[in-house]
Amino acid sequence: MKLRIVSLCAAALFALLPINATAQSAVTAYGGSTDVTLSSTLTSALSSLGVKIGYDHPAVVSGATATFPIVSGVIDLKTSAGTLLHSGSLTFDAASDNTKVSLQAFVISTASKTPVLSGEVVVNNAVWGRYNLFDLTLPAGTTLPLKPNGNTLWLKGVKLTLDPSMSAMLNKVYGVSQFTPGFEVGTANLSAVVGWNR
């Protein structure tokens, strides 16, 4: 019984001690945004098909850059594994046949060997399901553990390429074969507002 009391006291004391941020592993994301600058390769390919790029709020497209707010997520700073959920959507509108593709409910997942950005695909208001849209390549020189600057975790220069699932979907929708796996999509810069897990 004495040992149990000592153990409980030690646990209570430990809970009251300030948490050392450098020892923390997981952080919760509760804000921020991901900016994706679309490549001229992608925009030119879509333009050749008469497809215009648009967006639905709260996403914003300015020029070739699309911005999507981060609404929640969790990241392990030691391994970079985690997920980030976004709001807003990116739309592809084909004037020739009124085909509209909407990509929304974006999730960046870095838990797998190849980090991916997935999303719900809606074609002409019919939900096709969740697809792996873009494969992600972290910028050269990225080291672990990841280190937030204050309460903001920055990651710049993430390369996006078409995942096989996304390339097959685009080819099917537009009746073409030019969207191949690995097709250059663009570059993403991420800034996530994070808090330490307790």
Describe this structure as you would to a colleague:
The protein is an alpha+beta fold. The chain has one domain (25-196). 18% of the residues lie in helices and 51% in strands. It is built from three helices and eleven strands, in the order αβαβββββββββαβ. It has an eight-stranded antiparallel β-barrel. A hairpin with a 6-residue loop joins strand 7 and strand 8 (116-123). The longest helix has 15 residues, at 2-16. The protein is elongated, with a radius of gyration of 21 Å.
End-to-end separation in angstroms reads 29 Å
Query: If you average the pLDDT, what whole number results?
Result: 88
| Total separate domains | 1
Q: Strand-residue fraction?
A: over 45%
Helix content: 10-25%
Low-confidence stretches: 1-22
The ordered H/E elements are HEHEEEEEEEEEHE
Set out the fold topology:
Layout: H1 2-16, E1 26-38, H2 40-48, E2 51-56, E3 60-62, E4 65-76, E5 82-86, E6 89-94, E7 99-109, E8 116-123, E9 126-137, E10 152-162, H3 164-174, E11 184-196
Antiparallel strand pairs: 1-4, 1-11, 2-6, 3-4, 4-5, 5-7, 6-7, 7-8, 8-9, 9-10, 10-11
Summarize this entry quickly.
With 198 residues, the protein is α+β, with helices and mostly antiparallel strands.
